[in-house]
Amino acid sequence: MTFVKRSKSFVLLVFLISSLLLRVSEASVVSSGDFNKDFLVTWSPTHVNTSSDGRSRTLKLDQESGASFSSIQTFLFGKIDMKIKLIPGTSQGTVVAYYMSSDQTNRDEIDFEFLGNVNGHPYILQTNIYADGVDNREERIHLWFDPTKDFHTYSVLWNVYQIVFMVDEIPIRLYRNHSEKGVPYPRLQPMSIKVSLWNGESWATSGGNEKVDWSKAPFVASFGDYKIDACIWKGNPTLCKEESNENWWNKNDFSSLTRVQKRWFKWVSKYHLIYDYCQDYARFHNKLPMECSLPKY
């Protein structure tokens, strides 16, 4: 009701500002929306099915093979969105991975991993970050919806200030750039976007106690409506680190969460977080990683 009561001039101003922001964002979009043009199949083409217009793609896992694809370009900072619908029904032991990786020995990596479960039990979404080849930064949540019923958008905002994992634009995890304090942060290595479906029964469900039920195969995950709004790597990190209209993600407005985003993040942490490495004192022998004692925003 409050929006209806606002003056026409204010509504027009909001519209003009929104249109300007949209144009700024679109100026740096580097995706075509066609999986065949932006990605290469990197594992088992027979287990990858792409629609005739290239706008949607599925991966299949059976006893013969899983499957994967990877972006043709590599990127240093930006925002990545991918709509995903996960494997319905029985899915224990399966892993759907959607991530960015630099493919170096001391690689940087930003991971979404969807861990399948016994039918009737919720999916687990695990996130992880590699920085200079070191990971052990897992967090896990239960989603507040059934991710097998419909497509949902899973996003990464990666800039010089922070990494934000989002589900339908709700921030579920933050990793702040504290490199000036000696905390490793992905900031020098360009990364490609990768998606895969594979057998992770040795660890993915109940610590490996629940194995893949191959009688329910094939297992199929679906992908579509992706957006890559990022700095294409051209050999000079300075071009991707600078703040500009094209590199909008590096603007100060995106240096931290907004007030509303902070409320959503706290809600996820309170009601949906089931594991946080920064709370696992036993794992780290009471010596938690340095970033665990530093501000998230």
If helices are DSSP runs of H or I spanning 4 or more residues, what is the number of helices? Answer: 5
Report the sheet with the most strands, covering strand number, pairing sense and barrel closure.
8 strands, antiparallel
**Which secondary-structure class do the elements indicate?**
alpha+beta
Average per-residue pLDDT, rounded, comes to 91
Report the principal-axis shape. globular
Strand order of the largest sheet: 1-4-13-6-7-8-9-15
Report the sheet-strand fraction: 25-35%
The H-and-E topology, N to C, reads as HHHEEEEEEEEEEEEEEHHE
Low-confidence stretches: 1-27
Short description:
The protein has 297 residues and is of the alpha+beta class. It has helices at residues 2-5, 8-26, 35-38, 237-241, 259-271, and strands spanning 39-43, 48-50, 56-61, 67-71, 75-85, 94-101, 109-115, 124-130, 139-142, 152-158, 162-167, 170-176, 192-199, 219-232, 273-276.
Can you describe what's shown?
The chain has 297 residues and is an alpha+beta fold. It is 15% helix and 34% strand. The chain has five helices and 15 strands. The chain has helices at 2-5, 8-26, 35-38, 237-241, 259-271, and strands spanning 39-43, 48-50, 56-61, 67-71, 75-85, 94-101, 109-115, 124-130, 139-142, 152-158, 162-167, 170-176, 192-199, 219-232, 273-276. The strands form two sheets. It has an eight-stranded antiparallel sheet. A seven-stranded antiparallel sheet has the order 2-3-14-5-10-11-12. The two termini are 33 Å apart.
